[in-house]
Amino acid sequence: MIAGILCGFLPLAIWLYLLLFHHGFWRLKERDTAPVAEPAAWPSVVAVVPARNEVDVIQASLSSLLAQDYPGDFQIVLVDDQSDDGTGQRARALNNSRLTVLSGDTRPAGWTGKLWAMSQGVEQAGQPEFLWFTDADISHSPDNLRRLVARAEDGNKMLVSLMARLHCGTAAEHFLIPAFVYFFDMLFPFGAVNSTHSPIAAAAGGCMLVRREGLEKSGGIAAIRHNIIDDCALGRVMKRQGPIWLGLTDRAVSMRPYNHIADIRHMVARSAYAQLGYSPLMLIGTLFGLALVYLAPVAAALFGWGVSQMAGWLAWLLMAGMYVPMLRFYRLSPLWGLALPLIGLFYASFTLESAIQHWSGRGGMWKGRAQANEAGA
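RE: above sequence
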Protein backbone atom coordinates (compact mmCIF):
# COMPACT_ATOMS: atom_id res chain seq x y z
CA MET A 1 0.00 0.00 0.00
CA ILE A 2 2.72 2.49 1.01
CA ALA A 3 4.83 1.54 -2.03
CA GLY A 4 1.81 2.09 -4.28
CA ILE A 5 1.21 5.54 -2.83
CA LEU A 6 4.85 6.59 -3.11
CA CYS A 7 5.45 5.20 -6.59
CA GLY A 8 2.07 5.84 -8.17
CA PHE A 9 -0.35 8.23 -6.53
CA LEU A 10 2.05 10.77 -5.01
CA PRO A 11 4.02 11.34 -8.25
CA LEU A 12 0.74 11.62 -10.15
CA ALA A 13 -0.47 14.25 -7.68
CA ILE A 14 2.79 16.16 -8.09
CA TRP A 15 2.55 16.16 -11.89
CA LEU A 16 -1.09 17.24 -11.75
CA TYR A 17 -0.05 20.16 -9.55
CA LEU A 18 2.74 21.08 -11.99
CA LEU A 19 0.27 20.85 -14.87
CA LEU A 20 -2.46 22.99 -13.33
CA PHE A 21 -0.93 25.31 -10.75
CA HIS A 22 2.78 25.90 -11.39
CA HIS A 23 2.37 29.07 -13.48
CA GLY A 24 1.86 27.03 -16.66
CA PHE A 25 5.64 26.81 -17.06
CA TRP A 26 5.43 23.91 -19.52
CA ARG A 27 3.34 25.88 -22.04
CA LEU A 28 6.27 28.18 -22.94
CA LYS A 29 4.05 31.23 -23.35
CA GLU A 30 6.82 33.68 -22.46
CA ARG A 31 8.56 34.32 -25.78
CA ASP A 32 9.81 37.43 -27.53
CA THR A 33 7.63 36.87 -30.59
CA ALA A 34 4.83 39.28 -29.64
CA PRO A 35 5.23 42.79 -31.14
CA VAL A 36 6.25 45.60 -28.79
CA ALA A 37 5.77 49.30 -29.47
CA GLU A 38 9.01 51.13 -30.23
CA PRO A 39 9.97 54.08 -28.01
CA ALA A 40 9.85 57.66 -29.28
CA ALA A 41 13.56 58.06 -28.48
CA TRP A 42 16.14 55.31 -28.39
CA PRO A 43 18.31 55.21 -25.23
CA SER A 44 22.05 54.67 -25.28
CA VAL A 45 23.31 51.11 -24.83
CA VAL A 46 26.71 49.56 -24.16
CA ALA A 47 27.12 45.82 -24.64
CA VAL A 48 29.50 44.23 -22.13
CA VAL A 49 30.97 40.91 -23.26
CA PRO A 50 33.07 38.93 -20.76
CA ALA A 51 35.30 36.49 -22.62
CA ARG A 52 37.81 33.88 -21.52
CA ASN A 53 39.35 31.53 -24.09
CA GLU A 54 36.67 32.05 -26.74
CA VAL A 55 38.93 32.36 -29.78
CA ASP A 56 36.84 29.99 -31.89
CA VAL A 57 33.61 31.98 -31.63
CA ILE A 58 34.53 35.52 -30.61
CA GLN A 59 34.58 37.10 -34.06
CA ALA A 60 31.21 35.61 -35.01
CA SER A 61 29.71 36.76 -31.71
CA LEU A 62 31.08 40.30 -31.96
CA SER A 63 30.14 40.54 -35.63
CA SER A 64 26.53 39.80 -34.71
CA LEU A 65 26.67 42.66 -32.19
CA LEU A 66 28.24 45.04 -34.68
CA ALA A 67 25.48 44.14 -37.16
CA GLN A 68 22.66 45.32 -34.85
CA ASP A 69 20.22 47.68 -36.58
CA TYR A 70 19.80 49.71 -33.39
CA PRO A 71 18.83 53.37 -34.10
CA GLY A 72 20.35 54.79 -30.89
CA ASP A 73 23.91 55.17 -29.63
CA PHE A 74 25.44 51.70 -29.27
CA GLN A 75 28.94 50.69 -28.20
CA ILE A 76 30.56 47.37 -27.33
CA VAL A 77 33.10 46.57 -24.62
CA LEU A 78 34.75 43.17 -24.70
CA VAL A 79 36.63 42.23 -21.53
CA ASP A 80 39.34 39.71 -22.30
CA ASP A 81 39.47 37.80 -19.02
CA GLN A 82 43.17 36.81 -19.19
CA SER A 83 42.66 34.42 -22.10
CA ASP A 84 45.64 32.38 -23.22
CA ASP A 85 44.28 31.39 -26.64
CA GLY A 86 44.39 34.70 -28.50
CA THR A 87 40.79 35.76 -27.83
CA GLY A 88 41.76 39.41 -27.35
CA GLN A 89 43.89 39.54 -30.48
CA ARG A 90 41.13 37.94 -32.54
CA ALA A 91 38.63 40.51 -31.25
CA ARG A 92 40.95 43.45 -31.95
CA ALA A 93 41.39 42.23 -35.50
CA LEU A 94 37.80 43.35 -36.21
CA ASN A 95 39.12 46.93 -35.92
CA ASN A 96 35.77 48.64 -35.44
CA SER A 97 35.38 52.07 -33.84
CA ARG A 98 32.35 50.91 -31.83
CA LEU A 99 34.32 48.07 -30.25
CA THR A 100 36.64 48.47 -27.25
CA VAL A 101 38.71 45.47 -26.22
CA LEU A 102 39.78 45.67 -22.59
CA SER A 103 42.44 43.44 -21.07
CA GLY A 104 41.05 42.21 -17.77
CA ASP A 105 42.91 42.63 -14.48
CA THR A 106 43.71 39.83 -12.05
CA ARG A 107 40.61 38.67 -10.23
CA PRO A 108 40.42 39.78 -6.58
CA ALA A 109 39.48 37.40 -3.78
CA GLY A 110 35.74 37.01 -3.32
CA TRP A 111 34.84 37.48 -6.99
CA THR A 112 33.90 34.90 -9.59
CA GLY A 113 35.69 35.33 -12.88
CA LYS A 114 32.74 36.26 -15.06
CA LEU A 115 31.37 38.82 -12.61
CA TRP A 116 34.78 40.45 -12.20
CA ALA A 117 35.02 40.75 -15.99
CA MET A 118 31.49 42.17 -16.15
CA SER A 119 32.36 44.70 -13.43
CA GLN A 120 35.36 45.94 -15.39
CA GLY A 121 33.21 46.24 -18.49
CA VAL A 122 30.61 48.27 -16.61
CA GLU A 123 33.29 50.67 -15.40
CA GLN A 124 34.61 51.07 -18.94
CA ALA A 125 31.10 51.61 -20.33
CA GLY A 126 30.55 54.96 -18.64
CA GLN A 127 27.00 56.26 -18.25
CA PRO A 128 24.71 54.62 -20.83
CA GLU A 129 21.03 54.20 -20.06
CA PHE A 130 21.26 50.44 -20.59
CA LEU A 131 23.93 47.78 -20.23
CA TRP A 132 23.62 44.69 -22.39
CA PHE A 133 25.39 41.70 -20.85
CA THR A 134 25.89 38.95 -23.39
CA ASP A 135 28.12 35.89 -23.47
CA ALA A 136 30.98 35.57 -25.93
CA ASP A 137 29.52 32.42 -27.51
CA ILE A 138 26.10 33.95 -28.35
CA SER A 139 25.12 35.10 -31.83
CA HIS A 140 22.32 37.67 -32.12
CA SER A 141 19.91 38.45 -34.93
CA PRO A 142 20.25 42.05 -36.21
CA ASP A 143 16.98 43.17 -34.59
CA ASN A 144 17.60 41.65 -31.17
CA LEU A 145 18.82 44.77 -29.35
CA ARG A 146 16.09 46.89 -30.90
CA ARG A 147 13.42 44.54 -29.58
CA LEU A 148 15.10 44.17 -26.19
CA VAL A 149 15.13 47.92 -25.65
CA ALA A 150 11.53 48.30 -26.84
CA ARG A 151 10.42 45.64 -24.35
CA ALA A 152 12.42 47.24 -21.54
CA GLU A 153 10.98 50.70 -22.23
CA ASP A 154 7.47 49.25 -22.27
CA GLY A 155 6.61 49.30 -18.58
CA ASN A 156 9.97 50.70 -17.42
CA LYS A 157 11.46 47.25 -16.86
CA MET A 158 14.69 46.99 -14.92
CA LEU A 159 15.90 43.90 -16.74
CA VAL A 160 14.92 42.05 -19.89
CA SER A 161 16.57 38.67 -20.39
CA LEU A 162 16.32 36.07 -23.11
CA MET A 163 16.99 32.36 -22.74
CA ALA A 164 19.13 31.81 -25.81
CA ARG A 165 18.42 28.83 -28.02
CA LEU A 166 21.13 26.36 -27.05
CA HIS A 167 23.02 24.31 -29.60
CA CYS A 168 21.05 21.11 -30.18
CA GLY A 169 22.45 19.12 -33.07
CA THR A 170 24.25 16.11 -31.58
CA ALA A 171 22.71 13.00 -30.01
CA ALA A 172 23.93 14.08 -26.57
CA GLU A 173 22.27 17.46 -27.06
CA HIS A 174 18.99 15.90 -28.22
CA PHE A 175 19.00 13.81 -25.06
CA LEU A 176 19.86 16.50 -22.50
CA ILE A 177 19.71 20.10 -23.79
CA PRO A 178 15.92 20.64 -24.06
CA ALA A 179 15.60 19.19 -20.57
CA PHE A 180 18.13 21.71 -19.27
CA VAL A 181 15.87 24.58 -20.34
CA TYR A 182 12.74 22.69 -19.22
CA PHE A 183 14.13 22.12 -15.72
CA PHE A 184 15.22 25.76 -15.50
CA ASP A 185 11.71 26.88 -16.43
CA MET A 186 10.26 24.46 -13.88
CA LEU A 187 12.55 25.82 -11.16
CA PHE A 188 12.02 29.47 -12.14
CA PRO A 189 8.69 29.63 -14.00
CA PHE A 190 9.03 32.46 -16.49
CA GLY A 191 5.46 33.58 -15.84
CA ALA A 192 6.25 33.99 -12.14
CA VAL A 193 9.52 35.77 -12.90
CA ASN A 194 7.63 38.26 -15.06
CA SER A 195 4.88 38.85 -12.50
CA THR A 196 5.21 41.79 -10.13
CA HIS A 197 3.11 39.80 -7.64
CA SER A 198 5.61 36.92 -7.38
CA PRO A 199 8.93 36.99 -5.48
CA ILE A 200 10.48 34.51 -7.95
CA ALA A 201 13.29 36.12 -9.92
CA ALA A 202 15.76 34.82 -12.49
CA ALA A 203 17.57 35.72 -15.67
CA ALA A 204 19.48 33.94 -18.43
CA GLY A 205 23.10 35.02 -18.54
CA GLY A 206 23.58 34.77 -22.29
CA CYS A 207 21.44 37.85 -22.95
CA MET A 208 20.53 40.38 -20.26
CA LEU A 209 19.59 44.02 -20.89
CA VAL A 210 19.86 45.97 -17.62
CA ARG A 211 18.82 49.52 -16.77
CA ARG A 212 22.04 51.09 -15.49
CA GLU A 213 20.47 53.30 -12.81
CA GLY A 214 18.63 50.31 -11.37
CA LEU A 215 21.85 48.30 -11.31
CA GLU A 216 23.66 51.09 -9.48
CA LYS A 217 20.86 51.42 -6.91
CA SER A 218 21.07 47.67 -6.25
CA GLY A 219 24.77 47.95 -5.40
CA GLY A 220 26.17 47.17 -8.84
CA ILE A 221 27.88 43.97 -9.89
CA ALA A 222 29.79 44.03 -6.59
CA ALA A 223 26.54 43.18 -4.77
CA ILE A 224 26.54 39.70 -6.36
CA ARG A 225 30.29 39.28 -6.85
CA HIS A 226 30.56 35.85 -5.16
CA ASN A 227 27.67 34.13 -6.98
CA ILE A 228 28.40 31.17 -9.24
CA ILE A 229 24.88 31.39 -10.70
CA ASP A 230 25.39 35.04 -11.57
CA ASP A 231 22.42 35.52 -13.89
CA CYS A 232 19.79 34.48 -11.34
CA ALA A 233 21.54 36.56 -8.69
CA LEU A 234 21.33 39.57 -10.99
CA GLY A 235 17.66 38.82 -11.63
CA ARG A 236 16.96 38.86 -7.88
CA VAL A 237 18.62 42.20 -7.19
CA MET A 238 17.07 43.85 -10.24
CA LYS A 239 13.55 42.67 -9.39
CA ARG A 240 13.87 44.53 -6.09
CA GLN A 241 14.23 47.69 -8.19
CA GLY A 242 11.24 47.08 -10.44
CA PRO A 243 9.67 44.69 -12.98
CA ILE A 244 11.80 42.26 -14.96
CA TRP A 245 11.05 39.99 -17.93
CA LEU A 246 12.44 36.62 -19.01
CA GLY A 247 11.48 34.65 -22.11
CA LEU A 248 12.55 32.18 -24.76
CA THR A 249 13.95 33.39 -28.05
CA ASP A 250 15.30 32.45 -31.45
CA ARG A 251 17.07 35.83 -31.74
CA ALA A 252 19.96 34.79 -29.50
CA VAL A 253 21.60 31.48 -30.33
CA SER A 254 24.45 29.70 -28.57
CA MET A 255 27.28 28.69 -30.89
CA ARG A 256 28.84 26.39 -28.30
CA PRO A 257 28.26 22.71 -29.19
CA TYR A 258 28.05 19.95 -26.60
CA ASN A 259 29.30 16.97 -28.55
CA HIS A 260 29.32 14.51 -25.68
CA ILE A 261 27.31 13.87 -22.53
CA ALA A 262 30.47 14.70 -20.57
CA ASP A 263 30.38 18.26 -21.95
CA ILE A 264 26.86 18.79 -20.65
CA ARG A 265 27.70 17.09 -17.36
CA HIS A 266 30.54 19.56 -16.87
CA MET A 267 28.26 22.53 -17.58
CA VAL A 268 25.62 21.37 -15.09
CA ALA A 269 28.03 20.19 -12.38
CA ARG A 270 29.71 23.60 -12.34
CA SER A 271 26.73 25.23 -10.62
CA ALA A 272 24.16 22.62 -9.52
CA TYR A 273 25.35 22.37 -5.91
CA ALA A 274 25.53 26.19 -5.70
CA GLN A 275 21.82 26.28 -6.55
CA LEU A 276 21.25 24.13 -3.47
CA GLY A 277 23.13 26.59 -1.28
CA TYR A 278 25.93 24.04 -0.75
CA SER A 279 23.62 22.27 1.69
CA PRO A 280 23.94 18.48 2.15
CA LEU A 281 20.35 18.36 3.41
CA MET A 282 19.12 20.17 0.29
CA LEU A 283 21.15 17.73 -1.81
CA ILE A 284 19.54 14.71 -0.14
CA GLY A 285 16.09 16.25 -0.50
CA THR A 286 16.69 17.08 -4.15
CA LEU A 287 17.90 13.60 -5.04
CA PHE A 288 14.93 12.06 -3.23
CA GLY A 289 12.56 14.46 -4.98
CA LEU A 290 14.01 13.67 -8.41
CA ALA A 291 13.64 9.95 -7.74
CA LEU A 292 10.06 10.42 -6.59
CA VAL A 293 9.00 12.62 -9.49
CA TYR A 294 10.83 10.93 -12.37
CA LEU A 295 11.73 7.35 -11.43
CA ALA A 296 8.87 6.28 -9.15
CA PRO A 297 6.19 6.56 -11.89
CA VAL A 298 8.24 4.26 -14.13
CA ALA A 299 8.64 1.75 -11.30
CA ALA A 300 4.90 1.82 -10.63
CA ALA A 301 4.03 1.55 -14.33
CA LEU A 302 6.33 -1.41 -14.99
CA PHE A 303 6.22 -3.29 -11.71
CA GLY A 304 3.11 -2.09 -9.86
CA TRP A 305 -0.37 -3.55 -9.80
CA GLY A 306 -3.93 -2.37 -9.94
CA VAL A 307 -4.72 1.31 -9.58
CA SER A 308 -1.20 2.17 -8.43
CA GLN A 309 0.13 0.83 -11.74
CA MET A 310 -2.45 2.90 -13.60
CA ALA A 311 -1.40 5.98 -11.59
CA GLY A 312 2.23 5.31 -12.55
CA TRP A 313 1.36 5.16 -16.25
CA LEU A 314 -0.71 8.33 -16.02
CA ALA A 315 2.12 10.19 -14.28
CA TRP A 316 4.64 8.99 -16.88
CA LEU A 317 2.43 9.98 -19.80
CA LEU A 318 1.62 13.30 -18.17
CA MET A 319 5.28 14.25 -17.74
CA ALA A 320 5.98 13.16 -21.32
CA GLY A 321 3.11 15.29 -22.63
CA MET A 322 4.18 18.36 -20.65
CA TYR A 323 7.65 18.06 -22.18
CA VAL A 324 6.34 18.19 -25.75
CA PRO A 325 6.21 22.03 -26.14
CA MET A 326 9.91 22.23 -25.27
CA LEU A 327 10.71 19.42 -27.70
CA ARG A 328 8.81 21.28 -30.40
CA PHE A 329 10.77 24.45 -29.63
CA TYR A 330 13.94 22.46 -30.28
CA ARG A 331 12.35 20.72 -33.29
CA LEU A 332 12.64 17.23 -31.83
CA SER A 333 10.29 14.26 -31.81
CA PRO A 334 7.67 14.16 -29.03
CA LEU A 335 8.80 10.58 -28.36
CA TRP A 336 11.75 12.03 -26.46
CA GLY A 337 9.21 12.83 -23.75
CA LEU A 338 9.06 9.16 -22.79
CA ALA A 339 12.78 9.34 -21.96
CA LEU A 340 12.29 12.13 -19.41
CA PRO A 341 12.65 9.76 -16.41
CA LEU A 342 16.04 8.60 -17.71
CA ILE A 343 17.03 12.19 -18.45
CA GLY A 344 16.07 13.12 -14.90
CA LEU A 345 18.32 10.35 -13.61
CA PHE A 346 21.25 11.79 -15.55
CA TYR A 347 20.64 15.27 -14.11
CA ALA A 348 20.45 13.79 -10.62
CA SER A 349 23.88 12.24 -11.16
CA PHE A 350 25.24 15.59 -12.41
CA THR A 351 23.92 17.25 -9.24
CA LEU A 352 25.60 14.66 -7.05
CA GLU A 353 28.85 15.11 -8.97
CA SER A 354 28.60 18.87 -8.43
CA ALA A 355 28.49 18.30 -4.67
CA ILE A 356 31.43 15.88 -4.82
CA GLN A 357 33.47 18.42 -6.77
CA HIS A 358 32.73 21.07 -4.16
CA TRP A 359 33.71 18.78 -1.27
CA SER A 360 36.98 17.95 -3.04
CA GLY A 361 37.84 21.65 -3.56
CA ARG A 362 36.97 21.78 -7.25
CA GLY A 363 33.58 23.51 -6.94
CA GLY A 364 32.49 25.82 -9.73
CA MET A 365 35.29 24.58 -11.98
CA TRP A 366 35.20 26.54 -15.23
CA LYS A 367 38.10 27.06 -17.64
CA GLY A 368 40.69 26.18 -15.06
CA ARG A 369 39.17 28.01 -12.08
CA ALA A 370 37.59 26.38 -9.02
CA GLN A 371 35.54 29.46 -8.30
CA ALA A 372 33.09 28.23 -5.65
CA ASN A 373 35.77 27.81 -3.01
CA GLU A 374 37.66 30.96 -3.99
CA ALA A 375 34.48 33.02 -3.87
CA GLY A 376 33.88 32.05 -0.28
CA ALA A 377 31.01 29.62 -0.82
